[in-house]
């Protein structure tokens, strides 16, 4: 029997990309920014003019990594150091796991509904751009007694 789950929508992703692009502009850095849904699949991506080509896959992979492991990529970085519990995790999933900051899961009512990945600057700047994307959702990412499917810009999906 199919089950329902909440996920980011294209409308959510567009709002997130706009905010992330504004943050990138304030930093003076051209960025690659990716948004994935609850299943870890790409919903939207932007490569600002002049953004590093090598950061395209990093942005997408950061978003996917944050979603498939339900952790920020900066948290995974600490857990993946020599002698730590997840040492070597970056070699899993065909080497597409990214273990440095800039990938953040998007939570709603205690469930992960997607993730964002940003790449082009320092780790701190990448995190700031990703956080700006999440902040654009405002009340949607806060705990609420209402169902996400009843709020504007959300959808109920089946799997």
Folded structure, characterized:
By secondary structure, this protein is α+β, with helices and mostly antiparallel strands. It has a single domain (8-138), classed as Haem-degrading domain (Beta-Lactamase), CATH 3.30.450.150. Helix content is 33%, strand content 23%. The chain has a 4-stranded antiparallel β-sheet with strand order 3-2-5-4. Strands 1-6 form a two-stranded antiparallel ribbon. Helix 1 crosses helix 4 (123-135). It is globular. The relative contact order is 0.24. Mean pLDDT is 88; it is low at 142-159.
Largest sheet: 4 strands, antiparallel
Question: Which CATH architecture is right?
Answer: 2-Layer Sandwich
Radius of gyration: 15 Å
CATH superfamily: Haem-degrading domain
Distance between the termini: 9 Å
* Overall geometric form: globular
- Which stretches are poorly predicted, pLDDT < 50 over at least 5 residues? 142-159
**How do the strands line up in the largest sheet?**
3-2-5-4
Comma- or semicolon-separated keywords:
159 residues, two-stranded antiparallel ribbon, 6 strands, alpha+beta, four-stranded antiparallel β-sheet, single chain
Task: Please summarize what this structure is.
This protein has 159 residues and is an alpha+beta fold. It contains four helices and six strands; from the N terminus they run E-H-E-E-H-H-E-E-H-E.
């Amino acid at each position: 029997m199919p089950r329902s789950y909440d996920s980011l929508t294209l409308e959510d992703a567009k709002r997130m990309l706009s905010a992330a692009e504004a943050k990138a502009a304030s930093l003076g850095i051209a960025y690659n920014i990716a948004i994935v849904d609850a299943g870890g699949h790409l919903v939207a991506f932007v490569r600002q003019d002049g953004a590093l080509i090598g950061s395209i896959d990093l942005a997408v992979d950061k978003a996917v990594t944050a979603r498939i492991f339900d952790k920020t990529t900066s948290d995974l970085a600490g857990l993946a150091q020599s002698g730590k519990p997840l040492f070597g995790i970056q070699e899993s999933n065909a080497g597409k796991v990214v273990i440095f900051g800039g990938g953040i899961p998007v939570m709603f009512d205690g469930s992960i509904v997607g993730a964002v990945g940003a790449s082009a600057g320092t780790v701190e700047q990448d995190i700031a751009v990703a956080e700006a994307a999440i902040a654009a959702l405002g009340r949607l990412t806060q705990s609420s007694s209402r169902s996400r499917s009843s709020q504007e810009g959300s959808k109920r999906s089946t799997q």
